[in-house]
Amino acid sequence: MKRLWELDVARGLMLVLMTITHVPSRFTDPVGQPFGFVSAAEGFVLLSAFVSGLVYSRIGYAQGVDVMRRAFWRRALKIYLIQAALLLFVFTVITAVGLRVDHTEIKEMVRYYLAHPHDALTYSLLLVYQPAFLDILPMYILFMLMSPWVIAFAMRHGWQWPIAVSATLWAVAQFGSTQWLYAVVSSRLHVPVPYDETGSFDTFTWQFLWFVGMWMGASRNAPDAQPFTFPRWLLGGAIVVAGFCLGWRHFGPTGQAPFGDDAGLNLLFDKWHLGPLRLVNLAALCIVAIRFGPPLLNRLPWRPRVLEAMGSASLPVFCAHLVAVFLVLSFVGRNNPATSWASDVLLLAVVFCGLYAVAWWVQRREEKEKSEKNDRPGRLTPRTGTPSAAAPAPAPPVTAGSTRRA
């Protein structure tokens, strides 16, 4: 399957923005929520879901639901092992350095681990306890485990019911159902981890973003798939909403908090629970990006290879950016008044060089694996002119109408 370089560029841009937001510097606040009251996290999750729907639904149509399900599970296992490695890194190296340097940020980040090390280790591996910055990969794992069942249902019955159920869960979660459900389950199962140590992202709201993105990606594999088009009134309204929120965010008096100190109204734009006005802002940005993004990218005098490389290796680069954030917090701390603009620029330059090095290494490794795969036995043998025994003849592709049931 040919990669869509525009999607890789977009994911690379999201990774750059997330890195600037997470690495403490003078650029953190100005770059936070750069497109209005929407952060890079929403864009990254939506793009990842789109790519997952595009790739895995094609596997389901061509090779069957069972093959697609196993592909999802392999990806989920890979992400879980990465999460476990990051937890081990934080609980050992970062905690030791943070305690030795005596940085408040690190002690606050692992406060539950410091108070209850055995419970923290056990329940972090069960994806319940999620320290700061380590709460997005568990969400990905859960979504990956759920996705093959949703796609398999949608392949047979359409996406109307999955999206309707997902939207209902999002709406109910706006009224605190996630915290209530956790309280009930944790009391029955005697889980000692407090709710505020289970991560910042509300899984029951963010699943809606994931499955909408997956539906958009999977729809591209439909036999009658048409390019995304929007009526003029909707496109015009999206431009107005996106432009208004962009101006409100960067030129309004309240900065990243749209309604200042009014906590109740700010919930309408809340990031962690995906407030309704935040979704409106995100939908407007998506419509504008889909309509104008590809033409603008194709008119660039050069192809943004750096962003493309980072986006194509999004998972390793994302994990490398977390390692960089942890190291900076451990050795430098947050909002250090002794740093200068030059030191902040140098710090970010070093971090981005490291992230690009990771992307470059992943790209070279994938090219090598692809070359080795193409060189494997399977060519016509010199004597018989028939396929060699090492390469069985490929099975005919399974069409969408004959896809095996889950």
TrEMBL record:
Keyword Transmembrane belongs to the record: yes
Region (Disordered): 366-406
UniProt feature, compositional bias: Basic and acidic residues: 366-378
Record keywords, A-Z: Membrane, Transmembrane, Transmembrane helix
Transmembrane segments: 12-28, 34-56, 77-99, 132-154, 161-183, 203-221, 233-252, 272-292, 313-333, 345-362
Domain of life: Bacteria
Low complexity bias locations: 381-406
InterPro entries (UniProt xref): UCP028704_OpgC
Protein's UniProt name: Acyltransferase
Organism, as annotated: Variovorax ginsengisoli
High-level lineage: Bacteria, Pseudomonadati, Pseudomonadota, Betaproteobacteria, Burkholderiales
